[in-house]
Each structure stands twice: as structure tokens, then as C-alpha cells.
Design a protein that fits this description.
Two copies of one chain form a homodimer.
Chain A: H1 3-11, H2 18-22, H3 36-46, H4 56-60, H5 79-89, E1 93-95, E2 102-104, H6 106-125, E3 129-130, E4 136-138, H7 139-142, H8 146-152, E5 157-162, E6 165-173, H9 178-188, E7 197-206, E8 221-231, H10 234-255, E9 261-264, E10 276-284, E11 289-300, H11 302-307, E12 310-312, E13 326-328, E14 330-337, H12 339-348, E15 365-369, H13 378-397, E16 402-404, H14 412-421, E17 426-430, H15 432-437, E18 439-444, E19 453-457, H16 461-486, E20 488-490, H17 494-502, E21 506-511, H18 515-524, E22 544-549, E23 573-578
Parallel strand pairs in A: 3-7, 15-16, 15-17, 20-21
Antiparallel strand pairs in A: 1-2, 4-6, 5-6, 7-8, 8-14, 9-10, 9-22, 10-11, 11-14, 12-13, 17-18, 18-19, 21-23, 22-23
Helix pairs in contact in A: 6-10
């Protein structure tokens, strides 16, 4: 079976499988030159155009008002369909004819740029420097660390042809750059004076996975940053691992308004070739599944060993003629990916579409003249528009990212829905009545109807709007955070394990932290358990360990057993388990 | 012959072939686990460590002062060797075991980031939005524009395996993204209201070239931005093409202090699939060769045709029931690459190493305490260091990017050479005498010995240093610009054509702009011409048309013939020809 057939097979059960939905399965069918008819049929099937259609039928009937087709299903009823509609109609992402590879449209790419600025500023303070290493890695180089290659072998894409010729030796498209970078580290690091060495790159990586692809969440190509550092001591390396984890958590919590749990991976789940892996774990309430949000690894001395990255011990007392001992360096690597954008969308989006947190919204405020009808005089309209323009300038001067919607021929309802679908956090409306009262009407995207609306004095717009945006940001985080907290259940006994998962929670359990025991738990928590009622839409996958939370819920009582009754070992830590992406 | 063998063969004559120099040729030899001995031998061969070596011999003799091995050859005598030493010792770039693929170290990557900020700001004002399209393009998609695929077929790298499986259909690693993006354009652009559509992406592309690779200048993978826009009218598209060209020229001239000539490509040299190509052309005085600096293309309606990107004519007067005409959109694409960094290095570097223009220097000023000897009291030293630190703060407050060099155990000479090799534009020295006189001693990197040094009052440092940096920037540009102008020769007759090229100039000649005539000129200007004395180091390549300069030197007299005597056609334009990279 070819890889693509495998992918297609597997994606048949996928919760958001674009290949099937778009009919662009790569299988055995010859690629046809697209014909206009077929294209139109496909587009109609996709339904999701947020712009007014301009097909011939409509063109004939010019008076018809543009219709906006919003999100046509509920998040709580069909998350997969909802997610696909939201990212397409919200103009975050587009599918391509390469399954598992997606277009990051300006809507999502801008969020990535905000993340870049935020993170660059923090790592520059840590004296990390940005750089760029090649996309291609030789097979010999990739194989130099055994655990590492074993972890990645199944998902490496290989280039075997250049132009019309076969390459003598095939080249891996980087799945990550440890092996690409550490030959350089070996050469560059000649003395303890060259330490620490701290490099970071923002790039694209490819992991030719055959699990279900899902936009942002699991794709064959994704964007990320990967930091790689070398230190003289384990202690120094360990300190940095946690500093980076804090920055990652800050991106999620302070920028994306998404709560995460900090912790350490169990041996089963750590990065191939790592000494240990720290992680932040997110949660998707709609399905009750955990999701790995970002990881920061201490690689220990494994790669230093294989790549011969050593320095002479600067602290050794040496006698005349005595050589200094060689020390292997301590290395870290840490990565943060575009998956984060998917987590953000899944966390905040609602039945109307996207909800973007203000700090990462390209458009924070949409400002709209309203109340202009066929009976409004041109003078009144001109005056109103000039006032709107003045409001815009005030907001821009206050560093608010604002866009005015002056579009003609669209009803206010259309425009409201359009901006709501795109997730703009705050709408300001300004009509003749508002003008007379010296106020603007506000409408918060994150609040339910009835609680969303308010007014701000025109004279206070430059201070009150930024304040309101920060309130929205904080409220979005609080809501998500409360939800996650309420779904993280302390479970002490196995009998409660699966039912608690089935009720869309993750569980924190006493555990031995052993690998075989984890495998057993995964098996025993999968599928429909006897005597349990299972939500038909709940994934039948088993639960895996998500992390050992840094903040342990309570001290383990002496003699507490592992939650797995088949295990019998003593519990070592509280470990968070869950079904997961 | 395999592609790698071809590459190796060709690179044997290469002016800066890393594969040969490093002995990392990819040929048939099995990859060995690197042994320390072999590694050390190799590193010694490379010689070029700018850091003090810490091999066992030296460790024994701890008192020995670190020796800096500077650039060991002259730019004017062996440009290839000089270039390689300068980029390695200046820590701009590193070679890898994949021929033609390089590491962009922080020294060069930082310049790329300055370019990104500068260009992003300008295109954002033009309402261009950043995004990201996939690395992989299906073969079917790549082939949809005939001229385009013909232009790139020979240099596409193909992925044929994923994990351990063969892919059903191989995937191209993008050489450029026209075909990857325009399926989306076809879907997105439904009405004239969707125009203009202006997207840009910063990414990596691969062109598996078999010409000589040369770091920055011609590599198999490079970084760039590629802008792709669609417009309703040719006029609007054409206006943007030139706006972008102006921005590209500004990156070179205002940031990199490198002069360029704006113009249009002849039909022979335009982008595959373009309607027309505008270009900025640089010049490398050391070899007298032109170099394409960046291009901005109007693609016309070629891709709109193949990808069916049409809108209904909004300006057509339609009668009841009449359908509107379909208009094909007008498209542009424009790209700017990391090649620019190589041009900058080749332009400004000198026998001591890199010279970085202040506006793109990560470290603009290195500040150094001097005059501290074994006889200096600790009090005096501490006072001096505190004063240096205060100077640093003043400079940082004035937004000067400054680094202090407090390294112990290195002579001032070592430090001076080290920073000079890295191209830091301005050195400030501050010793006890300077302190007593209330001045800092300045030393400009861009000026020859004897003219480089001056002083600035400590009290004026926050205004005078930024001013001096701007003077350095302006002087670097003027020097390069004067040089280029003096080497751009107006040539009216064929007899002067080759001798003028051989004297390391480019020529501006009356030309018919015909393709076959250009081919003839290339042939007739290659190799050693009879009766001509040729510089042994001059490339024996023929001259090609570089551009039709936008600023024509003078009006062509009625009846002027093409410079090629075999052609006989009337000259249409002054065309710049040259040997080129």
C-alpha cells in the first residue's frame, strides 16, 4: 500500500479531514486539468463563501442584497464540521491539493507574526541569536543519534531527485534540526569561552505523518521556532529549559488567552533523544481532549556524545604538563509551532465563528457608520462619515488596530455577521443618534447577546477602548481557564478513570510513572468499556499520560498505589492522563 | 552521471566551492563516523578559527597569548579565497555536508531581519498582507503554465518518499510559488470587489542548480520574500511593479549601501511566464561582473489564463438580461533574496574582512577600555570600566547598538583585528588619557589607516556617534556608487566591446533588443578574443544583457545600428551588457 493510500485510509475516520471533504484525495486517480464547471460545483459544495457571490444568476438580478452564509452548524454538535467552516469562512486557512499541507492566510499568519515578535523579544534578552540552517539533512547526519532517528524515521520526507536526475544520496527534509545543527556546534565550540551557545531559528519542518491531518493541529508541514543551546553545566541547561517553558506558557496565556498546565513528560512520552522533556498541555473542552501545546527539552549529553561536542574543564586544578579533562556540553532544544493557532481557535470560537483575543487580532476594532438610510441627506451622511474618520484617527493615535467598514450595498446585519465570523473582538457603531449623544455603541465579540453591548463617551474613546480590549482579553482567558480547571479531575481509583474521561475531562491520578503501565492504561481506557455508557461522538482512543504537573495537586500519602489496578506498584507522582490530539 | 557527480565536476572550477574546500564531497564514499583526529586535522586545515584555539599543545602553555589568524589573502588577488575566508572568519555563514546549502549564522541572519522589517513596513503601507503557502507543490500544479515549468524543470528537487514508503505522486519542493498560490487566487477572486489581492510570503525555496554554488550568491536553498498580486487593470499592475522595484533599490542603496541600476530585462532574460520583468542590477568591481540584485515582474494575464482567474467587468454598461464580460486579472510577482547579503559583502569587504554598513550592523559600535597594563591600579581600572559602562548606557539610550569588549587575556591588537574582521563599523576606545581629556577615540572601519581615527567629546557622544554612523553609511554608499558609475562604460562600437569588458567594466551599448542577437554577442564576447590581452583571472564567460536601463544615457540618434556588427538591425535602446554572476 502506498503512503498516500495509507493516509487516505486513515483519514477516512478523521474528525477534520480536508482531503475527503475537498475531494482532493491524492490516490490513484490521474490529476485532471480543472474545468470551470467542476470548479464551480466544488465551490458551491464548499458553500462557505463569505463574500457575496457573483455568479451569472445573481449578476442578472443586481438589486439582490448580498447574502452571507454564516457557520451552519453548532460547535457542540459537530466540532469537526464547525472547525472546518470556522477556519475557512474566517479566512484563517485554505486547503491545497497536497493532503496535510495548508495555506496560512493573512488571518492566521498575522497571529504567528505577533507570536514571533513577543517571543523574539524575550529570547533576545536571554542572548539567544536567530539564524537559519538548511532544509535538507543528509541521511548519514540524521542517523547519528539512535533514539532520535528511531523517533523520526517513519515520518521523514525524502528528496531523491534533482531536476531530471536521481541524487546519489537522498536528502531528508528536516523534521527538526538537532542533527543538522550539531555538526556546527561541534566545530564552533572549542573552549568553555564559546559557551553558552544559544541559537534559534524560525522555519518550516515536515513530518510526513499518517495520522489524521487536521489544520493547524497536525499537519505534514508546519511553521515553528526551534531553539538549540549548549551549556557547560546541567544546572545552567536545566534553568534555561524552564525559562523557555515560562515564555511558551506566556504566549498561550498572555497572548492567545489559552490556559495551559506546565509539567514534565513521562519517559514514554518524551522527545526522541532527550534527557527529559518539559511541556505545557492545553485542553479542548468541546471534546474533552488534552493537547500538547509546546515542549522544552533538556537533551542531556546524548548529542554531545554522538557529535563530539566537548570543552576542557575550566575549573579543574591542573599541574604542570597535565591535560585538562574533556567535558561534554549539556544541550537543550525547544520548539513552539503554528499548532498554537489551532488551539486558540478551538478554545475561543463559537457558533458565530472565530473569536480572536485582542492582543493578537490584526483588526482589534471594526468601526462602522450605522443608521444611514435612503432618507438620510447627503449632508448628514458626510458629517457622520467625517466623525467616524475622526474616531478612527483617535483610536489609531492610541495604538488601536482599527478598520472602518464603509462598504455600500451591504446591510448592517451582513456586515455585523461578517466581522463576527472573522472574530474581531470589538465592534463600534456610530449613527446619527450616537453622534447627537456624543457616544459610540460598543459590541463585544466574546459576550453573549444581551451582555455584549455598551456605550463609550466619544471624548474618552482613546483611553476607554484600549481598556475595554484588555478587559476582553482578560475575560477570555478567565473563561477558558475556569473551564479547563473544572475539567481537570482528581481521580484516585480506576473505577472512576474511564467514566471521568467519557464525561469529557482529563484526569490527574496517582501513578507509578512506568512506561508499560502507561501502555496498559491506554489499552484499558480505549473503546467502549463494559457497563459504561459512552458518548457516541467521543473518541474511542485510549488515554495517554499528558504530563506530570509541576504543580502537584497534593502530597501523595505514603503507600498510595498506582491508579492502574493491574500495576500494583507504588505511585510516585500525580500524573495527568487524557485522551488527546 | 548522477546529479551530484555533475555538481562536483562543475564545482571543481568553482570560484568558491565549499564542497571541494571542505572535503565533504557527497560522491560515492560511505559516510564515516567522524573520528576526533580526522576532525582536528580538518579543522586545522580550515585554519580560520577566529577564537583562540584550545588544543592540547596550547593548553600546556597557558601563558601564550591567543593568536588571531586574520584574512590571509588580498581581495584584489584572489577574490574566491578572500570571500570564503571573510564569510567564515566573519561568522556570516558556515558550510554543511549538503553541497550548495549553507548555514546563515546570526551575523548574516540579523541583516536579513533588518531587511524584513524595512520591507514589511513599506509593503504594509501598500496593503500587502503576509501569509504562508506550502513548501510542496504537486507536479500537475507546477506544470500548469508552460513557459514557467520550462524555466524551472531542470532545477526542481522532488520528494518521492515519505517515511519508508514511496509516494504515489512525487512532490516538488517549491522553486517559487506562482503555481502553488494561483489555485487559491482562482477560488478567492470571485468579483472585482476582491481586487486587488496582494499577498507576500517570507520563505525558503530550492533550486537544484548545477552551476557553481557560491555562498549567498547562488545556493540550492535560499531565503526570500515573494509577493504575488492580482489587479483589475494592466495600468494598476504596472504601477505596483515599479513601486516594488523602488523599494528593492532602497533596500540596497539605503540599507546595504550598495548602488544598483534600475531597468527592464530583455525578452531573453525575463522570468519564465512573465509579461515583462523589471530589475535592479548590481556590480562587483573586484571582478568587473554584473549581478542581478532583485526582480519585479508583471506576469500579465498568462497565469490568469491557465488558472482561470477572472472577474466580471464592473465598468461595462449592461442591458437587461445581458451577461457581463469576463476579464482576466493582471498579475505581478516580485522577489528579493538573501543573495543581497553576498552582494553587500563583496562590495564593501576589504583585506581585513567584513565591512558592515551601520544601518544593518547588529553591533554598530564596539566600545573598549584600553591602556590598562600590569601597572594600572585596580582603582584606576575600576573607575575606567565604570566610565565605559556609562558611555555604553548613553549610547544605548541614543538607540545605538553597542557592545563592550571587556575580555581579559587578549591584547588590544587581537581585539581590534577580531572586530575589524567582523566588520563592526565603528570602534570607540577609552583609556585613562581619554578619560582625563574627556574624549573617546573613534576608529572608522570604512576608512584606510591614517584617515580612520578621530575623537568625540564624551559630553556629545549621544548625538555625535549616531551622526558619525550615518556619515559612515553615506560614505560607504558614495564610494561604491562612484566606483560603479566609473565602471559603466558607454560603448558605441563593437571593437571596444570586449576590451572594455576585459578591463572589468560593464558596457552600455546601442542594441536591437533581439534575442538571437544577444546570443551572438554572448558567444562572440566569450573566451580569449584574437589580438586581445586577457587578464588570466578574468572569467572567460560571454556577456549577457543585464538590463535596459530605465535612465537611458542619451537619446539614440536616428539610424543608430545595433552594436553587434553581425546583426545589422537598427538599435532600439541603450542596453547594459556585462559578464555576470
Amino acid at each position: 500500500m502506498s503512503t498516500d493510500e495509507v493516509a487516505d485510509k486513515m483519514s477516512a475516520t478523521n474528525i477534520a479531514d480536508e482531503a475527503n471533504k475537498q475531494g482532493t484525495v491524492e490516490g490513484g486517480k490521474p490529476h485532471k486539468k480543472p474545468e470551470k464547471k467542476e470548479k464551480e460545483r466544488k465551490d458551491q459544495k464548499m458553500a462557505a463563501k463569505s463574500k457575496p457571490a457573483s455568479n451569472p444568476q445573481q449578476a442578472k438580478n443586481k438589486a439582490s442584497e448580498p447574502q452571507l452564509i454564516g457557520i451552519t452548524c453548532k460547535k457542540s454538535e459537530d466540532l469537526a464540521e464547525w472547525y472546518q467552516q470556522v477556519i475557512l469562512k474566517g479566512e484563517m486557512l485554505e486547503f491545497t491539493d497536497v493532503p496535510g499541507c495548508y495555506v496560512y492566510l493573512p488571518g492566521s499568519y498575522k497571529i504567528w507574526e505577533f507570536i514571533q515578535v513577543f517571543f523574539n523579544e524575550r529570547i533576545q534578552k536571554m542572548k539567544v541569536k536567530n539564524c537559519y540552517f538548511p532544509l535538507f539533512i543528509t541521511e548519514a547526519n540524521l542517523q547519528r543519534e539512535k533514539d532520535h532517528i528511531e523517533g523520526f524515521a517513519a515520518e521523514v520526507a525524502w528528496v531523491t531527485e534533482g531536476g531530471k536526475n536521481k541524487l546519489e544520496k537522498k536528502l531528508a527534509v528536516r523534521p527538526t534540526s538537532e542533527t543538522a545543527m550539531y555538526s556546527y556546534y561541534s566545530k564552533k565550540i572549542r573552549s568553555h569561552r564559546d559557551l553558552p551557545l544559544k541559537l534559534n531559528q524560525w522555519n518550516n519542518v515536515v513530518r510526513w505523518e499518517f495520522k489524521h491531518p487536521m489544520p493547524f493541529i497536525r499537519s505534514r508541514e508546519f511553521l515553528w521556532q526551534e531553539g538549540h543551546t549548549a551549556h557547560l553545566t546541567e544546572q545552567e541547561a536545566g534553568k534555561e529549559v524552564l525559562e523557555i517553558l515560562d515564555h511558551y506558557a506566556a504566549i498561550y496565556e498572555d497572548l492567545l488567552a489559552v490556559p495551559v498546565v506546565k509539567g514534565k513528560k513521562t519517559a514514554n512520552e518524551q522527545f526522541p533523544g532527550a534527557h527529559y522533556t518539559t511541556t505545557i498541555e492545553g485542553f479542548i473542552p468541546a471534546v474533552g481532549r488534552g493537547i500538547q501545546a509546546a515542549t522544552s527539552h533538556c537533551l542531556g549529553q546524548h548529542f554531545a556524545n554522538m557529535f563530539d561536542i566537548t570543552v576542557e574543564d575550566p575549573n579543574q586544578e591542573v599541574k604542570e604538563g597535565e591535560a585538562r579533562n574533556k567535558l561534554k556540553v549539556w544541550q537543550n532544544s525547544w520548539g513552539f509551532t503554528t499548532r498554537s493557532i489551532g488551539v486558540m481557535i478551538l478554545t475561543h470560537g463559537d457558533d458565530k465563528g472565530l473569536v480572536i483575543p485582542p492582543r493578537v487580532a490584526d483588526v482589534q476594532v471594526v468601526l462602522m457608520p450605522v443608521g444611514v438610510t435612503a432618507k438620510t441627506t447627503l449632508d448628514t451622511k458626510e458629517k457622520l462619515y467625517n466623525e467616524v474618520d475622526e474616531l478612527r484617527r483617535s483610536l489609531e493615535d492610541a495604538n488601536v488596530r482599527v478598520e472602518c467598514d464603509y462598504r455600500e450595498g451591504y446591510s448592517p446585519g451582513y456586515k455585523f455577521n461578517d466581522w463576527e465570523m472573522k472574530g474581531v473582538p470589538l465592534r463600534l457603531e456610530f449613527g446619527p443618534k450616537d453622534s447627537a449623544n456624543g457616544v459610540v455603541t460598543t459590541s463585544r465579540r466574546d459576550q453573549a447577546e444581551g451582555k455584549a453591548r455598551g456605550t463609550i463617551q466619544v471624548s474618552e474613546i482613546a483611553t476607554e477602548v484600549p481598556k475595554l480590549l484588555e478587559t476582553i482579553q482578560a475575560d477570555m482567558f478567565k473563561k477558558a481557564s475556569d473551564e479547563y480547571a473544572s475539567r481537570r479531575k482528581l481521580v484516585r481509583e480506576w473505577k472512576d478513570f474511564v467514566p471521568t474521561l467519557n464525561a469529557k475531562n482529563v484526569v490527574v491520578v496517582p501513578h507509578c510513572t512506568g512506561g508499560p503501565c502507561e501502555d496498559e492504561i491506554k489499552k484499558d481506557s480505549s473503546g467502549q468499556q463494559e457497563g459504561q455508557e459512552v458518548d457516541a461522538r467521543a473518541p474511542s482512543m485510549g488515554a495517554k499520560s499528558l504530563c506530570i504537573p509541576a504543580a502537584q495537586p497534593e502530597e501523595l500519602a505514603q503507600g498510595t498505589k498506582c491508579v492502574n489496578p493491574k500495576c500494583g506498584q507504588e505511585a510516585k507522582m500525580w500524573v495527568m492522563f487524557g485522551r488527546s490530539y
